Amino acid sequence: MVSALFDLGGKVAIVTGSSRGLGLASARGMAEHGARVVISGRKADACEAAAAEIRSAGGEAIAVACNIGRKEELQRVVDTAVSRWGRVDIVMANAAIHPWIGSVLDLKDETFNKFMQVNVQSSIWLAQMTAPGMLERNYGRFIIVASIVGLLGDGLTGTYGLTKAADMQFVRNMANEFASGGITANCIAPGTFKTQMARSEWESEERIKWYFSRNPSKRFGEVSEIAGLAVLLASPSGGYINGQTIAVDGGHTISFH
């Protein structure tokens, strides 16, 4: 029996980038607590496989392939959820890109624009598409998966970090504008997790040594360790958490090393 504190029964959630990794773990957790979940990612077959996994475990899930950098494709995800289940109560903007690493002196305009459109503007589009309905029902949960690089300076991954810092400001803005209408907006800022996107980090002996030298937990995160926070922020229990960025990093950002 699901505790009323975390009961998502009857709620509809869209989770982008949820065919694998942190997104799938979060979508699975929401489904386990009663939410009907839209699985979204670039590859239709991977999305359907993830949705099928949730259904086989007794949850409700559908798959809608989407490139979040294309507004019309995001709109199709929202429209499909509304057509199927009549509403969208929870949005978890997990999908993002990290296509380039380097000095700001070498940052090309087209690269910057791509970073911003996919990592930042897509979240604004999702809010525009879903917040009006949330306000009508006086319940909405908007969660963006940011990164601790949005809290820390870095000379090589700074452009990605800039977009994640923008995400953090966006949820503060949303909280200020919509909190009285029952909407919460928060960021989850993961450290390095054992995902495909971060494979170069946790398979490199050099990077492992560096990361463990400053991380008090001396390990990388497991994808299952994101799901609990996602469920909390999506649930009634998360109703008074608003405009916040919560680091899930094993203590990385509080270490003085």
Tally of contiguous helical segments: 8
How far is the N terminus from the C terminus?
44 Å
What low-confidence regions span 5 or more consecutive residues with pLDDT below 50? none
CATH class category = Alpha Beta
Strand adjacency order, main sheet: 3-2-1-4-5-6-7
Helix content: 40-55%
Portion of residues in beta strands equals 15-25%
Alpha carbon gyration radius: 18 Å
Alpha-beta classification: alpha/beta
List the helices and strands in order.
EHEHEHEHEHEHHHE
Please give the domain count.
1
Residue-averaged pLDDT: 95
CATH architect. name: 3-Layer(aba) Sandwich
What is the number of strand segments? Answer: 7
The outline comes out as globular
Question: Under CATH, the topology is which?
Answer: Rossmann fold
Fourth-level CATH superfamily: NAD(P)-binding Rossmann-like Domain
Reported for the largest beta sheet, the result is: 7 strands, parallel
